[in-house]
Amino acid sequence: MTERLALEVTGLAVSYGIVPAVIDVSFAIEHGSITTIVGSNGAGKSTIMKALTGLVRPAGGRIRMFGEDIAGAEPDELVVRGVSLVPEGRRLFTTMSVAENLEIGAYRRSDVNAVARDFERVLEYFPALRGRLQVLAGSLSGGQQQMLAVARALMAAPRLLLLDEPTIGLGPAIVDTIAEIIQTIARSGVDMLLVEQNAEMALEISAQAFILERGRIIMQGRSSTLARSEEVRRAYLGV
Ligand SMILES: Nc1ncnc2c1ncn2[C@@H]1O[C@H](COP(=O)(O)OP(=O)(O)OP(=O)(O)O)[C@@H](O)[C@H]1O
Ligand SMILES: [Mg+2]
Q1: Residue 91 in contact with residue 138, Cβ under 8 Å?
Q2: By the 8 A CB rule, do 63 and 52 touch?
Q3: pLDDT digits (tens, 9 = 90+) for 20-34
Q4: CA–CA separation, 83 and 159 (whole Å)
Q5: Closest to 125 measured CA to CA, from 37, 187, 205, 191
């Protein structure tokens, strides 16, 4: 049964000191679709992402990724197992070139030919980066930096891509571009978990969604259904 699932999170709990940030969170991601977690500021979205990538240690619960328990796995090992994070705030190496940032994304891979193919492929996804390979990442526009952050994560050849607020602070046109690319990547067979504070785009491109409030999942269902819910619309769609 579990092979059907890219990710299965059961009763996840994470605390910072004695302060709980994520409480009894359970959800599953099926292969071949985009899943989103929507929640306001401080809801615990990034904490879930960090638990999934080994950056924080859960206080309780179970995480199965591609059918295997990942409890206690280190970030490096999880990258090799196929999970890659586009972190909140991008975390680019701003004083290094675009090309170097992409190369760093592939640092755990040894198949030079496959890495070269993926380098070409991410430039096809993000043509704006092609002419800027030697430019410092820090001198790119906000939208281009976000594209580079996604491209760098793809250079790890993930099976599961985690995106932590990839469109925050960006204008509508660039949000559309990034949303389209996220869908293209998903169609190429990469499973996706998208975390967003602004629910509009997230609910539009995802199949299923979870609403997180103060560390707990309070609603879940098909994204199209949640997008029509009065409660969700009022709280997260500003209508
Ligand atoms: N390193 C930390 N130490 C202590 N508390 C933290 C730490 N990181 C997050 N928190 C707290 O944990 C809770 C969840 O934070 P988290 O960053 O996961 O929320 P979020 O949903 O990603 O919010 P945002 O939309 O602002 O990114 C918040 O109350 C936050 O203040
Ligand atoms: Mg966050």
Answers
A1: no
A2: yes
A3: 999 999 999 999 889
A4: 6
A5: 187
Ligand 1 contact, 197 CB (< 6 A): yes
Encoded tokens for 74: 């280190």
Ligand 2 centroid–CA 193 distance in Å is: 14
Measured in degrees and rounded to the nearest 5, phi and psi for residue 235 equal -80, -35
Over residues 117-157, the pLDDT tens digits come to 999 999 999 999 999 999 999 999 999 999 999 999 999 99
What sign has the CA pseudo-torsion 156, 157, 158, 161? positive
CA distance 223 to 35: 9
Token pair recorded at residue 61: 């619960």
* Best residue among 12, 16, 25, 41 to mutate for probing ligand 1, ranked by most atoms within 8 Å of CB: 16
Q: DSSP string spanning 39-103?
A: --TTSSHHHHHHHHTTSS--SEEEEEETTEE-TT--HHHHHHHTEEEE-TT----TTSBHHHHHH
Q: Which domains does the chain have, with CATH numbers?
A: 1-82+195-239 (3.40.50.300)
Give the closest ligand to the alpha carbon of residue 40: 1
Helix (H) or strand (E) holding 143: helix 142-154
Length of the chain measured in residues: 239
Whether the CB-CB separation of 175 and 204 falls below 8 Å is answered with no
Verdict on whether the full-model pTM lies above 0.85: yes
